[in-house]
Amino acid sequence: xxxxxxxxxxxxxxxxxxxxxxxxxxxxxxxxxxxxxxxxxxxxxxxxxxxxxxxxxxxxxxxxxxxxxxxxxxxxxxxxxxxxxxxxxxxxxxxxxxxxxxxxxxxxxxxxxxxxxxxxxxxxxxxxxxxxxxxxxxxxxxxxxxxxxxxxxxxxxxxxxxxxxxxxxxxxxxxxxxxxxxxxxxxxxxxxxxxxxxxxxxxxxxxxxxxxxxxxxxxxxxxxxxxxxxxxxxxxxxxxxxxxxxxxxxxxxx
Length: 254
Fold this sequence. Notes:
Layout: E1 8-9, E2 12-13, H1 17-31, H2 37-43, H3 49-74, H4 80-94, H5 103-113, H6 118-123, H7 129-144, H8 147-152, H9 160-174, H10 184-207, H11 211-241
Antiparallel strand pairs: 1-2
């Protein structure tokens, strides 16, 4: 297409790949959950061990949903090369013995260190209802949306390294019940997340060709930020305000 001619559709002119990337990154600047009050309390050392355990327990539900949403994505992909690239996301979380133990195992080391029973964590029985609903909404979104839009929802990974670095340094410094092995999940994601984000971003830039799809991709990143934000809303309401719903994990007195 001539550089000076723009295709107009519903919603405005088609964005260039660089404009689309800038719009996606702007979503993170505005909406990523590093700005949430619960996140600030967690990383600044202002939560009790029980509150941190509640966060880790509920966050496991999200971690467990990630390989399922990636499997849902792959089930719709007919391009073998794309499947070959995408499958390592599942292996990163579920493991690929003997080389890779997987992110879920590393997360369980964190919950072990916080005194939570593994069977209780993996059952997800003590998770907040809002946590479960938000995570299942993410799996459903990836299963139902066009592939390029589904891929775009993963692009919160663009913003993840900074939050992992802050979490690792803050929690190791501020909590005497957190040690290096328990932060191994975040340390590994410092390398994995940028790799995944780079591939997914290029995929979106290559295949989001209409303004309608481009806007849907930007909204997919907003949706994913909402999924992450909603989980922290629920944690704050339950474990800071004190409105713990029936059946949810109740920390022992610290």
